[in-house]
Amino acid sequence: MALSKKQSKRLGSILSVIFNEDCGKENLQEVIKDGFVEKGEDDSYTLTEAGQSERRRLSTLAGLNLQYSHEREQEKK
Question: How far apart are CA 70 and CA 76, in angstroms?
Answer without folding.
Answer: 10
